[in-house]
Amino acid sequence: MAQVEIKGDDILLRALQTAANMKAHKAAVQKHGADLQKKAQSNAVFTRGYATGATKRSIKLEITDGGFAAKVTAGTDYSGYLEKGTRFMDAQPFMKPAFDVVQPKFINDLRRAGIAK
């Protein structure tokens, strides 16, 4: 009777697992990046001062690092002043509260996919 022995199968399995993890990681980044953008836009409703909606319209999502990172930015020059406030103006945060909601869900998805511990 013939006997077949396969060497290197553990390397192949690790490579396949890594490829699956990479796909899951990219999907989680895309999903939660878009969610962060939507939540930040929904939070960017300002009632004090001159509310024009420019900050809300300027919030953009950029996927970088080959799909492994998402960057959500507000493009107006004064968005930092809205987020943090000044000595004459109270803060009206819109980005940090959105991040605080999305971050645990993102980490949960990474854990479920076996990427984060």
Structural notes for this entry:
- The chain is mainly alpha-helical and 117 residues long.
- The chain is built from four helices and two strands.
- A two-stranded antiparallel ribbon has the order 1-2.
- A hairpin with a 4-residue loop joins β1 and β2.
- α1 runs antiparallel to α4.
- The mean pLDDT is 88.
Describe the structure using short key phrases.
10% strand, 2 strands, elongated, 117 residues, mainly alpha, single chain, 4 helices
Strand-helix topology:
Blueprint: H1 9-43, H2 54-58, E1 59-64, E2 69-74, H3 79-84, H4 95-112
Antiparallel strand pairs: 1-2
Q: Characterize the overall form.
A: elongated
Q: What is the overall number of helices?
A: 4
Broad structural category? mainly alpha
Q: Biggest sheet: strands side by side, in what order?
A: 1-2
Q: Between the first and last Cα atoms, what is the distance in angstroms?
A: 45 Å
Q: Return the average pLDDT rounded to an integer.
A: 88
Q: How much of the sequence is in beta strands?
A: 5-15%
Pfam family, one: HK97-gp10_like
InterPro entries: HK97-gp10_tail
Organism: Streptococcus gallolyticus
Protein name: Phage protein
Brief summary:
By secondary structure, the chain is mainly alpha-helical. The protein is built from 4 helices and 2 strands.
